[in-house]
Design goal:
The protein is α+β, with helices and mostly antiparallel strands and 411 residues long. The protein contains twelve helices and 15 strands.
Length: 411
């Protein structure tokens, strides 16, 4: 079984991949044992080696890889694309025998996820399970090897739509790829992912939580200049109007429970009582609401500041479970960062900080603002398709509908 599984993994990793010793079932069990708050929620899967890369999403070299992928998808489209995969009689997963599996094999082979021709066409064997996981990880889905509805929907997006995504994103990458600092942070909004890049290599990669469809994270370029440890959170007026007022109408104790204090803007000499505000009007939007540092704070333990007109920033979060979800679009425009301490340590290295100092500062609970000795470029980009250094093509849903009318199905 071990040898068979190793051969299966090797078969689907044609680009600089090595055979693994774990069986697919062992890999799946390892995956399920991982906590939500891990460095990468899919890091234990062998197929990760085929889809992840130490090379950044943005680079001049990425343009050549995109052009090669576009030619390949044009050829695929001209030959009729890939088949529509029907739903099986039961959920398609390891051990299932179903005629739909034969079509699934054709679909995975067309996109290069399955290159092993052995086995019965109608049996979902270890080769197919590994190929499904690889497909899922390339599309930002949970790599469990089970063809659920979300995976099926992604498989059945026409090749012409994927081709359009590649062509659209070639322009986006070209716009940014030749204007990169030697040290920068990339927030890829559709991927809900953050890369810290130095000298052309990814130093760390982080799962993120970005803006909801109706509260989108903006596209921008700036420089990180300050880190706030154990910060206050000043509630934006938009959130006061949309969220705070309705919550207070339902539960007048909400502010006290969340340790949010009320002041006048520009004057913190007097704290106001919630009963002094008419919550049936917009009067609350004229007050400043500030949440105290602590475990309830919406920013978590740290905030990363950079100048921008949208008043957005990167931050930690007390809601760690969000990082384990397939669709990480929950915020009001700001970006929550998984394993943010690793990113903070990297940003503060020029200041002489290490991870121990970062951890100790957070643990102390002290309010501390640190100016970066070396302000670092940061970009919020909208990239729904890219090709990594191993030639593996990635796609993400066009969550904000910026790719064009034809990609509405991706939502």
């Amino acid at each position: 079984m071990v040898a068979l599984a190793a051969a299966a993994f090797a078969a689907i990793l044609p680009l600089r991949a090595e055979a693994q010793n774990d069986s697919p079932l062992e890999a799946l069990r390892d995956f399920k044992r991982q906590a939500e708050w891990t460095d990468r929620f899919d890091a234990t899967l062998p197929e990760v080696h085929a889809v992840n890369s130490l090379q950044p999403t943005l680079s001049p070299e990425a343009l050549g890889r995109m052009q090669l992928a576009i030619e390949r998808y044009r050829t695929l489209a001209a030959s009729g694309g890939w088949p529509i995969v029907p739903a099986g009689k039961t959920a398609m997963q390891l051990g299932v025998r179903d005629q739909a599996v034969a079509v699934l094999r054709q679909r995975l082979a067309a996109s290069g996820d399955l290159v092993q021709a052995g086995g019965r066409d109608d049996v979902f064997d270890s080769y197919v399970a590994a190929a499904v996981r690889r497909f899922q990880l390339r599309h930002g889905l949970r790599g469990d090897g089970i063809v659920d509805q979300q995976t099926l929907d992604a498989m059945n997006v026409p090749v012409t739509v994927r081709l359009q995504q590649l062509e659209t994103n070639l322009g986006r990458i070209a716009e940014r790829a030749n204007d990169l600092s030697d040290r920068y942070v990339l927030v890829n909004i559709p991927a809900a992912e953050i890369e810290a890049v130095e000298n052309g290599r990814v130093r760390s990669r982080h799962t993120g939580v970005v803006g909801k469809v109706d509260r989108q994270s903006p596209i921008l370029v700036s420089r990180v200049h300050e880190i706030n440890f154990n910060p206050y959170w000043t509630v934006p007026v938009s959130i006061v109007r949309r969220d705070l007022i309705p919550k207070m109408k339902k539960n007048p104790e909400y502010l006290a429970e969340q340790k949010i204090k009320i002041y006048r803007w520009g004057d913190e000499s007097r704290e106001y009582d919630y009963r002094e505000i008419d919550w049936n009007t917009d009067e609350a939007t004229t007050y400043m609401f500030r949440q105290e540092p602590g475990e309830l704070n919406s920013l978590g333990t740290v905030k990363i500041n950079f100048h921008n007109q949208h008043q957005v920033y990167l931050h930690d979060t007390p809601q760690k479970s969000l990082f384990g979800e397939d669709a990480r679009f929950h915020s009001s425009g700001c970006v929550r960062v998984q394993n943010v301490r690793e990113l903070i340590t990297w940003l503060l290295q020029p200041n002489g900080w290490d991870r121990g100092k970062v951890d100790a500062t957070i643990r102390s609970g002290e309010r501390l603002d640190v100016q970066l000795d070396r302000p670092t470029q940061i970009m919020f980009a909208y990239i729904t398709a890219w090709v990594n250094a191993d030639g593996v093509v990635h796609f993400r849903d066009d969550i904000y509908n910026k790719d064009g009318v034809e990609t509405l199905a991706l939502r």
